[in-house]
Amino acid sequence: MPSVTVYSTANKATHSQLREHNRQLLLRAIYEGVADNRAALAQETQLAKPTVSELIGELIEEGLLIEEGRGHSTREGGKRPRLLKFVPGARHVIGLSVNDDYVMGALAYLDGRIVARHYTDLDGAQGEVVVAVVCETINGLLAQLDAPLLCIGIGVSGAVDAKAGIVTYAPLLGWQQVPLAERIEAIYQTPVYLANSTALVAMAQFVYGPTDPVNCFAAVRMGSSVGVGLVVNGAIYDGGGEIGALRMASGSPVDVRPEDTGRLDTFLGWPYVRQRARELCEAYPYPNRQFNAGDPLSYLHIRYAIQNGDPAALALQDELSQHLAQVFAWIIGLLTPDHISLAGPIADLGETMLEQTVAYTRDLVWPDLIQTVTFSLTEASSLVAVGAIAQALHRELGLV
Amino acid sequence: MMAAQLGIITNNQHQVFQRAVIAGIREVVETHGLGLLIDSYADDETHPRPVTLDYHAVEGVCVIADAAPVDLLQAMVAAGKPVSLVSHRVPSLPIPTVSADNMQGVGELVQHVVEGCQRQQLVFIRGLSGQWDADGRENAFRQEIMRYNLHVPPAHMLRGDFSASMAAHSLQTLIANGARFDAVIAADYLMAIAAVETLRGAGYRVPDDVSVVGFGDAREAEAAGLTTVAADVVEQGRRAARQLLSQINGLRIRGMTVLSVRLIVRDTSLPQSVNLP
């Protein structure tokens, strides 16, 4: 819902903050179809008509709005108002997802429509080299601009101070206290917004997702680690993030370093699941080269073996479901969300795995708590970048 | 004074795919007031060696598919010459590429054939082995048949090389061997069109007996009523030219720019007995 709070001098906003806020207010009212002409905007936002006219003139000059046709006269008669329309192609936004082994970027228009995506492998890079790869990915998308760039949103798999724009800890990238937003902003002279990847997955699904509007939403992202992103009371909770380092047992299902024993991601993180799946696939009689040693493994290999009744694959799915149910139960116990979405490549295991997970979750929480919670699977690969785009649009223009 | 030029290396500038890519590159290059120098070695049987383009004489080079050997690409990188690849990738070299989304495209074709057309016995016609798009589309097909738990016998993975003649020959052999199938997915629309003609020539009804779909779209596909995923090849050329020009202007780019595709359902896939939801 759009906020209709109008700043006045009494609440000590600076003149430029006040102006920016009012611009966003007008733009969002048009973007969301709340009002489509100057008089209606003044009525909706309670801003003075001269202020509306001045700011709308500015937005038209910047290309973010156009005048297109005329509306109906009011009952009192008078001139038919000029209709205002939002121009999604007026600016581009770049959304980036910095993963453990590659950087993926998406170039989008202001309505979230993606023009191109760009992938750059990290090839085991760490530290400063990763910053260079982030720039190479941004450059790949800058080459494809059809309109000026508005801003850049970046999601990082690690601990992030979103407000300060700092990656506080991302061990697999070799980053600690990296002021990424400031550095990228200095290079490209454009606003940069940073967030944890899983928080952005929640943002993407909350803004563009297929689920009905919800008040409290949790996205469980299964990648190389495990993360939980939250939307609480209709707003993104910036503190969501990685939970893979939590200890949940005294052992792990695969050989790991002693200090990693029992961590949640040794049960659910893809590098560890892949290790187990490789053993499974080498033993499983895949027909027609569905699996060859050396092929890139995916959850679809596990799914195929499950569908064909392979006991080892079925046992692996059962085990994954049990561990995931533990995560779902924590979330339900703490928040009782309206909806939990399981996101990432694990969605390739399909609905059966989700149903199994929900069944195990029922055993772990009070029946009353889970009754109203709905669940879904999301396999879209660009969710972090899409969330970064949504967040950047929200922060820069007050849209979405 | 002669305008600065960009180079294009291709195996044959007259073939449908290459011609469309070059058209896109030309469009962008001309708006920048630059010239274009095309080395199309397969056109000339007396060509002294595979590639004769003097890359020192151009500002940068677009290479279509795998037309340039790796040692030439290495030499251009070593000389600091900006290079962009179209529908190809050499992971060992820091050369960026522009490609259609093969994984998404094949995924949509298989989903349409299996869920939309309710087909189970699939045949896949491969592209030229070792070529980036061909391998990517075949890999995507193998992934998708696992999603739907389909068994595709090795004999149903047909040899192809992106040419109509090879696709027709492979399918004729399969038919002659008495194979049973109800859908053909081709790595390329030209091969899919050849498949439609071959099937009809052999007495099959398309789409009632067999659904046929192919990757990529062009006027030929539309004229044949072929169901495809539209990978706008001219746009791919435009995007590659932009990538190359950005490199020439000093942007350091590595990795792969991927363009989305979209499913276009036409006459060759949906049997009349199947009603879309």
- Pairing-aware structural class of the strands and helices of chain A? alpha/beta
- Rg calculated over all Cα atoms of chain B: 20 Å
**Averaged pLDDT of chain B, please?**
92
State the CATH topology of the largest domain in chain A: Nucleotidyltransferase, domain 5
Number of domains of chain B: 2
Distance between the termini of chain A: 9 Å
Tally of contiguous helical segments of chain B: 8
The proportion of strand residues of chain A reads: 15-25%
Number of domains of chain A: 3
CATH topology of the largest domain in chain B: Rossmann fold
Low-confidence stretches of chain B: none
CATH top level class name of the largest domain in chain B: Alpha Beta
| Class based on secondary structure composition and strand pairing of chain B | alpha/beta
Named at the architecture level, the CATH assignment of the largest domain in chain A is 2-Layer Sandwich
| Strand tally of chain B | 12
Please write the CATH class name of the largest domain in chain A. Alpha Beta
CATH 4th-level superfamily of the largest domain in chain B: Response regulator
Q: Helical element count of chain A?
A: 13
> Separation of termini of chain B?
63 Å
CATH superfamily of the largest domain in chain A, by name, is ATPase, nucleotide binding domain
Description:
The complex is a heterodimer of chains A (400) and B (277). A 5-stranded mixed β-sheet of chain A has the order 5-4-3-6-10, sandwiched between helices. A 5-stranded mixed β-sheet of chain A has the order 13-12-11-14-15, sandwiched between helices. A 3-stranded antiparallel β-sheet of chain A has the order 7-8-9, with helices on one face. Helices cover 40% and strands 22% of the residues of chain A. The model of chain A is unreliable at 1-10 (pLDDT under 50). Chain A has 3 domains: 9-86, Orthogonal Bundle (Arc Repressor Mutant, subunit A); 91-206 and 383-397, Nucleotidyltransferase, domain 5 (2-Layer Sandwich), CATH 3.30.420; 212-378, ATPase, nucleotide binding domain (Nucleotidyltransferase, domain 5, 2-Layer Sandwich), CATH 3.30.420.40. In chain A, helix 1 (15-31) packs across helix 3 (49-61) and helix 10 crosses helix 11 (351-364). Chain A is globular. Chain A has 400 residues and is an alpha/beta fold. Chain B is of the alpha/beta class and 277 residues long. Chain B has 2 domains: 5-99 and 232-259, Rossmann fold, CATH 3.40.50.2300; 102-230, Response regulator (Rossmann fold), CATH 3.40.50.2300. In chain B, 37% of the residues lie in helices and 18% in strands. Chain B contains 8 helices and 12 strands. Chain B has helices spanning 16-31, 70-78, 102-116, 132-147, 164-176, 189-201, 219-223, 233-248; strands at residues 5-10, 35-40, 61-64, 83-86, 97-100, 122-125, 157-158, 183-186, 211-215, 227-230, 256-259, 262-264. In chain B, strand 8, helix 6 and strand 9 form a beta-alpha-beta unit. The model of chain B has no long low-confidence stretch (mean pLDDT 92). Chain A binds chain B through residues 103, 114, 116-121, 133, 135-137, 139-144, 287-290, 298, 300-301, 303-304, 307-308, 348, and chain B through 91, 96, 101, 142-143, 145-147, 149, 151-154, 157, 239, 242-243, 245-247, 251-260. Strand 5 of chain A pairs antiparallel with strand 11 (256-259) of chain B.
